[in-house]
């Protein structure tokens, strides 16, 4: 027994006869978009036949059904591209978010005030911690004549 084979061209040809008023380029692109959105051939066939039997349906309904489940994901972006159209806002937003996440760029800059200069008290504490770290580093590397770090005085 051979497996069920997809036949998108024949399905479009059937629609051409059954629904002559349809835009068959749109249907062909919608079938491709549905496939690229992850639909099985069985699903594409069943949905297309269902729409062909519905008096007020159009190939745009197939495309909308395919996009409904995949927009905002990579599959949605691929579906739009395979249908030869610009991606929708959800897909653009998802792609931007994915690109920014990959580059570890936050969506928003740090809030104002987060990088304000340190206070004089905090600077003194920071300087003491740094001096202790430097002294420990120097001793750890075998330096015999470690002179404690003395920051220059600001005149
Ligand atoms: Zn989309």
- The fraction of residues assigned to DSSP E strands is under 5%
What summary fits the major beta sheet?
Answer: none
- Count of helix runs: 7
Q: Helices and strands, in N-to-C order?
A: HHHHHHH
Defining traits:
155 residues, binds zinc ion, 7 helices, mainly alpha
Written description of the protein model:
There is one protein chain. The chain is mainly α. Among the domains are: about 1-65; about 70-105, no CATH class. The chain contains seven helices and no strands. It has helices at about 10-20, 25-35, 40-55, 60-70, 75-80, 90-100, 120-140. Helix 2 (about 25-35) packs antiparallel against helix 5. It is rod-shaped. The protein starts with 7 loop residues before the first helix and ends in a 15-residue tail after the last helix. The mean pLDDT is about 85. The structure holds zinc ion. Zinc ion binds near residues 71, 76 and 80.
Brief overview, please?
The protein is mostly helical and 155 residues long. It has helices spanning 8-18, 24-36, 41-53, 59-70, 74-82, 89-102, 120-140. It is built from seven helices and no strands.
């Amino acid at each position: 027994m051979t497996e069920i084979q997809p036949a998108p061209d024949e399905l479009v040809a059937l629609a051409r006869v059954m629904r002559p008023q349809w835009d068959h380029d749109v249907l062909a692109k919608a079938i491709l978009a549905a496939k690229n959105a992850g639909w099985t051939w069985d699903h594409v066939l069943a949905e297309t036949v269902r729409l062909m039997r519905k008096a007020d349906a159009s190939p745009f309904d197939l495309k909308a059904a395919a996009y409904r489940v995949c927009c905002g994901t990579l599959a949605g972006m691929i579906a739009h591209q395979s249908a030869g159209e610009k991606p929708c806002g959800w897909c653009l937003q998802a792609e931007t978010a994915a690109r920014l996440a990959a580059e570890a760029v936050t969506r928003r800059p740090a809030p104002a005030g987060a990088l304000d200069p340190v206070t004089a008290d905090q600077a003194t504490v920071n300087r003491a911690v740094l001096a202790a770290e430097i002294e420990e580093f120097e001793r750890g590397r075998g330096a015999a004549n470690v002179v404690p770090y003395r920051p220059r005085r600001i005149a």
